Amino acid sequence: MNPTLVRWLQAPSVVLLLIWMIVPLSMTLYFSTIRYNLLYPERTGFIGLDNYRFFATDPAFGPALINTLVLVGSVLAITIVLGLAVSILIDRPFRGRGIARVMLISPFFIMPTVSALVWKNMLMDPNNGLFAAFSNALGLEPVEWLAQYPLFSIILMVSWQWTPFAILIFMTSLQSQDQEQKEAATLDGAGFWSQFWNLTLPHLARPISIVLLIQMIFHLSIFAEIFVTTSGGPGVSSTNLTYLIYIQSQQAFDVGVASAGGVFAIILANIVALFLIRAVGKTLTV
Amino acid sequence: MTDRQRQIWIDRAAVTAAWIAALVFFFPIFWMVLTSFKTEGQAIQVPPLLIFEPTLENYLEIQDRTNYFKFAMNSVITAFGGTLVALLIAIPSAYSMAFNTTHRTKDVLMWMLSTKMLPAVGVLMPIYFLAQKFDLFDTRTLLVVIYAMMNLPIVMLILFNYFREIPKEILEASRMDGTSTFNEIRQIVLPLAWGGIASTALLSIILCWNEAFWSIVLTTTDASTLTAFVASFQAPEGLFWAKVSAVSTLACAPIVVFGWMAQKQLVQGLTFGAVK
């Protein structure tokens, strides 16, 4: 192919992505430094870092940041541990394994708004939900999950959706593990744990780090689950950074402050992204 | 107990544990589908009903009560539209990158991936502003554009990986025969990479179909997709679990089936090609 043609074929994707990245990004940066509230259109002008200061001193900012970190950290811990355990269980052949696998990964394909509603209503509802029925059957007081433990409830929902993702990735990766090596280890008398630490875990090191990083990217911007179930409440007890920025823009109509919050979110995501890109780059053979 | 007996017991325990895990994870989905066949009264009955006479009422009445098909159409149009646009942009690009790899190709692909790391909420205000400015708020066009750009990096990366598996010799042979580039793509690359393109499309459709930030924030009624429509049931205006379950089951069924079909590509796509 001649070089001109190559350039023309590649141009659309590069140029479009460049626009898609640069235009909104620079607008966010611009909005974050000006006075821009839809309720007070007469107030304008450059105000430096005031929006950032306002966003960071919002009493909800501290809790939202902590909630974000707790949410991401807990979901990561749960999904990785459970994902590892289940994918190892499912690695050995048994009757009906195909069906069990399909059942295990299905939650990942359920749209987030649906899974939020299913958990909120049919499982966690304190009057008619299934969990309440269990509590009643055991003679216990039903728990008002979303009111008493809002953040924990969301962690449960998100873990339910994302453990299947970890299972799917680990399962696929385990299939490429050297079986002869494992058999040799068994013959040498290596027990389950010794094989796990010395063979399986090193084999899964890369998939684990990839799963960690990808989940972090997605979980930093969890939105639909909170929107549908708790709306960030009670108070701000289940508000994360994404939801706080959404509130700033949709309820306070403060474009400037919401943009400053957006910049915070971008910085947070980029710290993670830096590691992810590096991990992915190592595997891309060009 | 001999070692052999012990091993048999461990195997049995492991299989049992695997089935328990499968049942636990699948249960909420099973419960949703089950509830969709109950009457509204049965759906909220305490203690919950496991055995009952199933009714199709919820499914038959969906359209009368909720305009379900409008939202389903919006989901179909935005998911397939966004995917189609992404593919049309990505196929020529990925093709030329795969067959004219330079020292910069990797950097370009990595940069493309990095655009995917931009959190949606970080560009919420500009997108909102631009949508209003161009009169695109609450239109399917807007969602198609956003979904296409959102998935373009992943689509590029997977297609690049597929195209690289096509033996270069085949292309060189056709070039000797004087085939034009357009015909080369159409007659050689597309047929050979067809499976790869189809599964890439499947992955992209799944991601668009389940997208629930932009669809909630950027639509009100006209362009609302199923994710946004389901979200509108969050308001506690009354209990209609059976109906919501029917809507949810219909909204999720095709994508769950797609997901089962595209497992392998999904792994590759979701890990940006790092796990195959």
TrEMBL record, chain A:
GO biological process: transmembrane transport
PROSITE patterns: ABC_TM1 (PS50928)
Classification via Pfam families: BPD_transp_1
Bilayer topology: Multi-pass membrane protein
Ranges where the ABC transmembrane type-1 domain occurs: 65-276
Annotated keywords: Cell membrane, Membrane, Transmembrane, Transmembrane helix, Transport
Location of this chain's protein in the cell: Cell membrane
Lineage top rank: taxon: Bacteria
CDD domains xref list: TM_PBP2
Bilayer-crossing regions: 12-31, 64-90, 102-119, 149-172, 210-232, 252-277
GO cellular component: plasma membrane
Assigned protein family: Belongs to the binding-protein-dependent transport system permease family.
Protein name (record): Various polyols ABC transporter, permease component 1
UniProtKB/TrEMBL annotation, chain B:
Chief location bin: membrane
GO CC annotations on file: plasma membrane
This protein's UniProt keywords: Cell membrane, Membrane, Transmembrane, Transmembrane helix, Transport
Gene3D superfamilies per record: MetI-like
Biological process, per Gene Ontology: transmembrane transport
InterPro entries to which the protein is assigned, alphabetical: BP-dep_ABC_trans_perm, MetI-like, MetI-like_sf
All residue ranges annotated as the ABC transmembrane type-1 domain in the record: 72-262
Cellular localisation: Cell membrane
Membrane topology: Multi-pass membrane protein
Membrane-spanning segments: 12-34, 76-96, 108-130, 142-163, 184-206, 240-262
Family: Belongs to the binding-protein-dependent transport system permease family.
Designated name of the protein: Various polyols ABC transporter, permease component 2
Organism: Litoreibacter arenae DSM 19593
